[in-house]
């Protein structure tokens, strides 16, 4: 299908430590969940906070990065594609899971909290099962306005 695109980019916090495992041929794979948050004001003027959870799977060098440097509560940027897998539960019923297959993972916490700014990217022309390229470090600051310190003292 010409003109289609499957791309997901999220910035969120890990709900638990990444779970490292290895495929049958020895490639590292990490499963983790990230929460993105938003808030809005309802009709009655009450502030409502909402979190959305995202399943993420990471392969090869980016998986090792996640396992070594990210922890529960870490702020991370994940870029990849959406994929739905079919599997069977213990009763033989078909189940489906939609997840982000990450091609890029970047830690966004400050250096004092974790390895902030570290990023690993799968080379797009070679796919997730080939060699990986390391992206330059970059400090990006807070992902959500609610995380920026001193917002009440802004001069405008």
Automatic annotation (TrEMBL):
This is Single-stranded DNA-binding protein. It holds the Pfam family SSB. Residues 53-59 bind DNA. SUPFAM superfamilies: Nucleic acid-binding proteins. The lineage of its organism: Bacteria, Pseudomonadati, Thermodesulfobacteriota, Desulfovibrionia, Desulfovibrionales. HAMAP family: SSB. Coiled coil: none annotated. The keyword Translocase does not apply. One of its GO terms (molecular function) is single-stranded DNA binding. CDD domains: SSB_OBF. One of its GO terms (cellular component) is nucleoid. It comes from Desulfonatronospira thiodismutans ASO3-1. It comes from the Bacteria. One of its GO terms (biological process) is DNA replication. Keywords: DNA-binding. Residues 107-156 are annotated as: Disordered.
